[in-house]
Design a protein that fits this description.
The chain is an all-alpha fold and about 190 residues long. Helix content is about 60%, strand content about 0%. It has eight helices and no strands. Helix 2 packs across helix 4 and helix 4 crosses helix 8. The protein is globular, with a radius of gyration of 20 Å.
């Protein structure tokens, strides 16, 4: 294989994105973004096997997009190489969900006016089942907007053409089920 496709391994056998050459880094960075997109459009809580398949697809897409044919060919033919590269985007899925959870926490705290020492208020919200956003509250919309659509490099903006209706003969864009499920799950917990 061409030398530029070789990976730099850490002492523990893992690979660090920053230790790789520029060509590998750009493929990995694009693969991370692509995997996040795949997750929010298809399955944001994949099994280990599904996550590996999604990461491999993201890597192949990234290598193809950057016209890195040698990296793509090696991904397709060298299982150990592919697994090592896939570990980088795979490792970012949990951090991606965690960042949305932190954002959601801030929005929920703000929406309900929660402060330190408000145990009685929280108990009352739980008793009356008001911990679920009421329908007139834009909390979930705010979380979706800030986590998926805020800024030109956001998933929603970069992937606007992928928001399609699941109904036949309907051209209106829709949020994918996985995206809504992620935010609803985070708010529910």
């Amino acid at each position: 294989w061409p030398e530029f496709t070789d990976l730099v391994y850490e002492a523990d056998g893992s690979i660090n994105l920053r230790a790789q050459n520029a060509r590998i880094q750009i493929v990995l960075k694009t693969a991370v973004l692509e995997l996040k997109k795949i997750a929010v459009f298809e399955n944001v809580f994949p099994t280990i096997t599904e996550k590996r398949k999604m990461a491999m697809r993201a890597l192949s897409t990234a290598a193809f997009e950057h016209k890195e044919r040698a990296i793509l060919k090696r991904l397709q033919n060298d299982i150990d190489y592919a697994a090592a590269l896939a570990s980088v985007p795979e490792g970012r899925i949990s951090a991606f969900r965690t960042s949305i959870k932190k954002l959601a926490h801030q929005i929920v705290v703000s929406r309900f006016g929660l402060k330190k020492g408000c145990a009685d208020q929280v108990e009352e919200l739980l008793k009356s089942h008001k911990y679920i956003f009421p329908t007139d509250n834009n909390g979930i919309v705010d979380i979706l907007h800030q986590s998926m659509f805020d800024g030109e490099n956001s998933i929603g903006v970069r992937s606007h053409e992928d928001f399609v209706s699941v109904l036949d003969d309907n051209d209106e864009p829709e949020l994918p089920v996985a995206m809504v499920a992620l935010v609803a799950t985070i708010v529910g917990f």
